[in-house]
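INSTRUCTION: Work out how this chain folds

Fields: amino acid sequence; protein backbone structure tokens

Chain under study, with its fold:
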Amino acid sequence: MLGVQDLYCAVLLVYNDINKTLPGPYHDPPTKEEVNELLKLSDKNEDGTLDRNEFNTFLETFTKTVSGRVSTNILLFSFVIPTIVTLSRPRAEQLPIVGPVVKQAPAPIYSALMTTLIVFIGGQFKRN
């Protein structure tokens, strides 16, 4: 029988491995409250713990949630952001104040700065 504390520790371990292995930003694990909600959805006999069958249900739901969160980040950092950075450079070079600096910047420096800026701005929207 597994309770919320056991499940939460396991979820943190999974996210620790994900963050060590996968590219892109840090993937925030679900909160203990979110894990508890998943437990409640899977706990058919409502005893506050999961037996083997309930745990299988929990794993199915958790896997769908994790794959959705992580695949979105991988897609963003592998394709979307690099495309935005590449397509934005010619326009940035035409800006009055920063254009000359952008023209002088090596492509890797420009890409790193723009990616950092996009991530920072995205993080600000995520918090609000």
In short: The mean pLDDT is 87. The CA atoms of residues 51 and 70 lie 27 Å apart.
